[in-house]
Amino acid sequence: MVEQRGIALLLVLCILLLMSGIVTMSSYYWSDIYYIAGEIKKSNSKRWLLLGVEDIFLKRMTKVISNNKLTNDILPFIISSSDFMEINDNYINFSFIEQINCFNINALQYSTVNDRPLNIIYPWLVFKNILQLKNTTEISINNMDLNDNYYFYENNKINESHMISVFPDLLANELLKSDKFYFDMSSIFCSRNDDKLLININMLEVKHSRLIQAILLNVINDSVISAAILSKPVNGWSSVKEFFDFIISNSDVVTEDVHKLRDIIAYNFTHDEYYFSSIFRTNANAGYYQLISLFRIKNSEVVILERRFSIGE
Asked: CB–CB of 277/97 below 8 Å?
C-alpha cells in the first residue's frame, strides 16, 4: 500500500514537472509571439505612415502639374520641396532622383543574333559612345580591352557575332557596379523598370548635350545639340518632330543619316513624359523604415509604377 502511494506521488510529481515545463516553454513561445506581433504591428504602422506621406506628396504634385506645362511646373516643385516632413511627431526625410535624360542601364541586354539583334546592339553602341565622349579610351576587364572599333564594326558594318560574345563578359564582370566607374559616370547613368533610353526634350540642359550626341550615335555635332537645347520655346517643344527639325536644319547631316536618326528619335525621345524616384524615410535612432517609389508623369497624369519598402539600422 505504501509502495503504491509512493508510485502515485512520484507520478503526480512527474506530471507537475511536465506541466511546469510546458508552461515555461509556452511562456517563451508566447513571449516570442508577442514580440513578433509587436514588430509586425510597428512595421505596418511605419509602412502606412510612409504611404500616407507619399499620398500627400502625390496629391500636391498632381495639383501643381497642369496640362502641357510639365517642364515649367514639375522641376520647380521637386527642387523647392523641403527635405523633411513632420506627421504626428514622426519626422520623415525625403529626396527625389530624376530617372530620365540619363542612360538607363537596363537597356543593356544580351540576346542571340537572330533575336532582333539591332535592337539589342543599339544601346551598346550608345554605351561605347558615352565612354568615348567621357574620354574613357580604354577599359581593361580580365585582359579584354574595349578600346577598338573592331568590337563594333567590321568593314563599316556591325560585327554582331563578336559583340554577342564580348558583352556578356562585360556585364559578368560588373563594370556597371564599379565604384570608380560610377564616380565618373554617376550623373549619366540611371536605372528604371523598363529597357528604354528615354530623353525628354523639354527638360534637357546643356550638360546633357554629350549624352544626346552619344544617343544619336555621333551623327550630330555637340554644338548643334547645345544650340537646340538653348533654343527651346518658352512653352517648350510641342513635339519631338519640332525639336528634330531644328537639329536637322542647323546641321549638315546627310540624307542616309537623317533616316537613321528618325528611327532613333521616334523610339527614344519624348516631349511630355517624365520619370523620377522619391525616397521617404522615417527618422529614428533605433533604425529606419524606407519607401522608394518610381513615378511616371505624362501630360497631367501621375502614376506610381513601383514601390519598394526596406528596413535598416
From this structure: yes
CA pair distance 152, 159, nearest whole angstrom: 5
Pairing of β 140-141 and β 153-154: unpaired
Task: Pull the grid cell for residue 237.
Answer: 517643344
Residue type at 242 in one-letter notation: E
The residue with cell 514588430 is 39
Residue range 131-169, pLDDT digits in tens: 776 554 444 433 334 444 444 444 444 454 555 455 545
> Quick one: how many helices (H) and strands (E) in the chain?
9, 13
Q: How distant is the alpha carbon of residue 158 from its chain centre?
A: 29
Residues with Cβ within 8 Å of 243's Cβ and at least 6 positions away in sequence, in order, are 201, 228, 237, 269, 271
Report the C-alpha gap between 237 and 68 in whole angstroms: 10
Alpha carbon of 40 to those of 30, 88, 229: distances in Å? 15, 20, 51
The answer to whether 285 and 96 have CB atoms below 8 angstroms apart is: no
Q: Are 278 and 94 in contact (CB under 8 A)?
A: yes
What residue segments make up the domains of the chain, in order of their start?
A: 34-102+187-313
Grid cell in block for residue 244: 528634330
- How far lies 255's CA from each of 123, 131, 218, in Å? 23, 27, 15
Gap between the Cα atoms of 272 and 237, Å rounded: 9
Query: Model pTM?
Result: 0.67
Is 68:61 a contact under the CB 8 Å cutoff?
Answer: no
Which residue in this structure is represented by grid cell 542601364? 105
Q: What whole-number distance in Å separates Cα of residue 118 and Cα of residue 278?
A: 34
What are residue 140's phi and psi, to 5 degrees? Answer: -100, 120
Segment 276-292, tens digit of pLDDT: 888 888 876 667 788 88
CB 65 within 8 A of CB 257: no
Cβ neighbours of 311 (radius 10 Å): 13
